[in-house]
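Below is how a single chain appears once it has passed through the pipeline. First comes the sequence as given, then the structure the pipeline wrote out for it. We keep one example in the README because the format questions we get most often are answered faster by looking than by reading.
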Amino acid sequence: MAKARKLKIEELYRKSIEEFKNSSKFPVVVVLDNVRSLNNIGSIFRTCDALNVEKIVLCGISATPPNTEIHKTALGAEDSMQWDYYEKAEEAIRILKEQGYQIFALEQTTDSIDIREFEISTNKKYAFVFGNELKGVAQGVIDGCKGAIEIPQFGTKHSFNVSVTAGIVIWDFFVKFTSKGKGA
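Resulting structure:
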């Protein structure tokens, strides 16, 4: 069996920041509701860049670029990703609804949808709300959403790190969207 060779950086065919900004995106927005860790925010920026997400919306205590701590994990994705800031997540959600987004909180609720059962339509735009590392998504924000999505968990901890949750959800959306024959 042949040994695989690690690709060189120039073999990855990375887009320039300008090419990325001008490219078509997947119809998904990531909303961060009071995410306190700058490392988590940076990691989410990087994931959103890697999976061609349309935009990130930062709310409340979520820090904004430019920021050295965000840069440590974003590794420049804070320069390529479009982002907005709102003091209140409820305002961001109201505006996204007016723009036609289907908005879902990532939270464990009495009516949350198992992510494995969550179906998307390639004709719709989506926004996913991720909450504070300790308190999750605020109830007032959940109330403004179309629903809540939950990732099944089977251990003693019933919460993933917010950046891990974002990675799982965005990847799941990417797989479901592209499996329907659509690309970004």
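The mean pLDDT is 96.

See the next section for the split statistics.
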